[in-house]
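Practice problem 4.
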């Protein structure tokens, strides 16, 4: 038995035991939903499926997935969960009851599954919590991972949990992967070969459409409708500094022509990222932006709106080893896409965009400044890349239908 597995199995019950008392130390926002984290929720009569999406990004895949499930079996009942409060808020708009997911302790997991009583469990992307899977196995409750994603780092982490975790993965009812690389990794940690296949990325079905009028979208956001927009999206620590230097390397007339909006990935990192940009010499403001400066927007849920107003988007988490964020979002909005070299979490999407000429990849420093400058100055090149990127995003739609068709074929839906 793996030492890590043994330690986890010993620690989780302790966590479950002290969690009720820990509420007093939580923030006011967290205390309001603490009972949900303890699994204290109830669905009268149970539900046909528990659908879990960890956070805001995964939550975008849920509405198209639910539409396809409902098309096969109208009137089914669902319970939706997320790990984060922002994910929970996004899921609330989908319609079915929603709560935060239970912490991975035996106590919270038993309480949740007894209260919700699902007949199927559908996990979006990568959520392998051992006590969820152990309790599902005890209850003979089928668990499928949909739009399944797995990084090399996750493979190493799961392998560290030994044969016990591998046995739980082997017991999954289905693993429906985003791409070939993901399928290979899932098989490497024990996914059942006969029930593991590629169906595509469910997020593709939840992608936005371009704005009918990009200039009007800029005007509606308080920008100059006549000047093109560069969006720096999902910035992670260290990236604002690198992008600021690349921006300042551009000629004055190029910078004067463009507007820039920067959006950090996490609001808690906003102050650090702002300091990076200001320290590099870029003025920052939340609305009235100085000449050559950036508008800064650290609100949650605004990025897609900015992408729809943009001609060019940099996708963050990619200039350092964060794995990269979703380049298909700006692509689907009709923006040309620029990204760094660290995109392991988005490899299939990047590969498809790169093959079509819909993305420019550049490391920090001089390569980034050169790539940014080329896209800012060459309108024809930028427009062509944007057109190619949009075509790739549209071609990926239909993943939710393929996923549900596979679930039907495997006898996992209807419940």
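Answer key:
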């Amino acid at each position: 038995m793996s030492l890590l597995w043994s330690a986890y199995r010993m620690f989780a019950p302790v966590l479950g035991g002290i969690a009720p008392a820990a509420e007093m130390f939580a923030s006011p926002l967290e205390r309001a939903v603490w009972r949900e984290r303890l699994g204290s929720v109830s669905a009268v009569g149970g539900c046909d499926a528990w659908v879990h999406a960890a956070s805001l990004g995964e939550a975008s895949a849920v509405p198209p997935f639910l539409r396809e499930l409902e098309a096969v079996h109208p009137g089914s009942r669902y319970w939706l969960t997320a790990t984060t409060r922002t994910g929970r808020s996004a899921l609330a708009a989908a319609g079915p009851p929603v709560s935060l997911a239970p912490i991975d302790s035996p106590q919270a997991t038993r309480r949740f599954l007894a209260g919700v009583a699902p007949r199927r469990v559908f996990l979006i992307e990568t959520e392998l919590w051992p006590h969820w899977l152990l309790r599902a196995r005890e209850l003979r409750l089928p668990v499928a991972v949909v739009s399944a994603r797995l990084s090399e780092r996750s493979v190493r982490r799961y392998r560290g949990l030994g044969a016990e975790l591998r046995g739980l993965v082997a017991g999954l009812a289905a693993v429906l992967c985003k791409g070939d690389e993901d399928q290979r990794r899932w098989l490497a940690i024990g996914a059942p070969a006969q029930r593991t296949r590629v169906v595509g990325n469910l997020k593709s079905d939840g992608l936005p459409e371009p704005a009918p009028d990009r200039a009007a979208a800029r005007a509606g956001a308080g920008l100059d409708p006549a000047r093109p927009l560069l969006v720096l999206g999902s910035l992670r620590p260290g990236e604002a500094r690198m992008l600021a230097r690349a921006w300042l390397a551009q000629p004055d007339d190029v910078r004067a022509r463009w507007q820039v909006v920067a959006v950090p990935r996490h609001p808690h990192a906003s102050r650090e990222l702002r300091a990076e940009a200001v320290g590099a010499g870029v003025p920052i403001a939340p609305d009235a932006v100085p000449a050559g400066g950036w508008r800064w927007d650290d609100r949650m849920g605004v990025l897609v709106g900015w992408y729809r107003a943009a001609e060019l988007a940099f996708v963050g988490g990619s200039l350092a080893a964060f794995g990269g964020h979703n380049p298909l979002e700006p692509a689907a909005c009709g923006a040309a896409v620029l990204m760094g070299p660290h995109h392991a979490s988005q490899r299939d999407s990047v590969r498809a965009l790169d093959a079509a000429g819909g993305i420019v990849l550049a490391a920090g420093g001089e390569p980034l400044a050169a790539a940014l400058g080329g896209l800012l100055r060459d309108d024809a090149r930028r427009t062509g890349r944007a057109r190619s990127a949009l075509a790739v995003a549209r071609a990926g739609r239909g993943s939710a239908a393929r996923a549900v068709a596979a679930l039907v074929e495997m006898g996992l839906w209807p419940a």
